[in-house]
Amino acid sequence: MTDARSAENIESLLKLSETLEAVGGVLLNQDFDSENFCFTSVVTDSRLVRENSLFVPLIGEFQDGHSYVPKALENGASVVFISKKTSKNLLDGFKNEAAHNKKVAFILVENTMRALQMAAAAYVRKFPRLIRCAVTGSSGKTTTKEITASILRQKFSVIATKGNFNSETGLPLSVFNIRPEHELGLFEMGMNRVNEIGEIAEVFKPNYAIITNIGTAHIGILGSRQNIASEKKKIFNYIDSFGAAFIPKEDDFASFLEKGVKGKVVKYGLDADPGVKLVVDEGLAGTVFTVDGLLMRLSLPGKYNFLNALGAIALAKELGCTAEQIKAGIESLKPLGGRSTLKKGKYTVLEDCYNANPDSMEKALDLCADTKIEGKKIYVLGDMLELGEESEAAHSKIGEKALHSDADMIVFFGFEMNYAFEKAVSIAQKKSSLADEKISSVRLIYIGNKDESAVEDAAKEILDFAENGDLILLKGSRGMGLERILPKIGMGEGVSS
Prior knowledge:
Elements: H1 4-8, H2 16-23, E1 26-27, E2 41-43, E3 53-55, H3 69-74, E4 77-83, H4 88-100, E5 105-109, H5 112-124, E6 131-136, H6 141-152, E7 158-160, H7 170-175, E8 184-188, H8 196-204, E9 208-211, H9 219-222, H10 225-232, E10 244-248, H11 254-258, E11 264-268, E12 276-281, E13 287-291, E14 294-298, H12 303-318, H13 323-331, E15 341-344, E16 348-352, H14 358-370, E17 377-382, H15 391-403, E18 409-413, H16 417-433, H17 437-440, E19 443-447, H18 452-465, E20 471-475, H19 485-488
Parallel strand pairs: 2-3, 3-4, 4-5, 6-8, 6-9, 7-8, 9-10, 10-11, 16-20, 17-18, 17-20, 18-19
Antiparallel strand pairs: 1-5, 12-13, 13-14, 15-16
Helix pairs in contact: 2-5, 5-8, 6-12, 6-13, 14-15, 15-16
């Protein structure tokens, strides 16, 4: 390996001294020349390593990433974090390798995950003038982030989370994409354990933050909505008197979320801002509204997506965006793969396969129930994952909700959806005895798997029942892969990432 920094005048994201101080690390190479220290990207997957990458091997429940260090070195890693907690054999091997390697820096740390976060925090501190914005919530995080980014790009040079790279590893990896030309950083923060938001908020320390809602996503892990709200509000921990917290006005945890916020509190929602007025809800076609008298249209369907947009607009206005800039951002918004994506052809398909929890499932069913069409309505509902002990009750509730949501056929897809199917069947049988023709006539199908044969079965049920002009809803957690149904019913490909 040549000294890429001197050969190509490449500057390292962090200097050796900055890195060691940030992570509390020890350089294992006794003869390493600090002038040769350089990394220009950070990865945790050895397959993504390229020349001058910092490779951070993570230790998981079933796998130790340190096993992939040789592959990372082969692919061009220039810096490697090594955990004291890896096996003694591996650790001794790395110490021996470091003793003879003068070109790759091996840095010994207590915990590689924590070291990644601390290095990322040190990197963020190199950009003191960056406007730091963040988004979290039980649902709608990525959509809100994408709407916000589209608006803010009309005024600022923006670096934003790609996709939903929002976890304990995703957020720190994302912030390493910040560059001197960026004026504003917009990062999404998710969680699936206690204090994950707290840890990643500490990395980025947002000045401005939006909470979309407090729902039941991950309630199986956190235990209650109160616990979820307590975790989500940690995104406000670093907001000072110059920043602002954006809170959904109608959320029943709104008052709790604003307690303790040191900066400005902005409540957003319908009628929260007199300058924003709803003109018409066009259902699947989107929402028409005005901002300071200027007419504009959000193409994403549903009231819930309009509420996400209101959060984005509130932040944009706080940062000085004009109505013209807001309109340009709203109307240049690109389709969000797998999230409330409308596909039109022989059928009208609402593809919402990227995520699902009880809140977002109910919102999708409400949207379809309120949509007036000449054809039939077919709902394919996949398992809502990560609900823990709440799963049976939550799926049963969705089964009842779906049955009363103006469907003509419902396909319950996945093991957990059996609870929804059984509830729907039970209610339909009772309604039949009461001569409730609409409810009792809904066709109810259960497919208790998610493999390719299950996808084939679901597609066959749809094709046997559907006709031109029918509305099809695909809604389920990402792990269910409901988008696989699309090509089998002649509606192209679905989201693949």
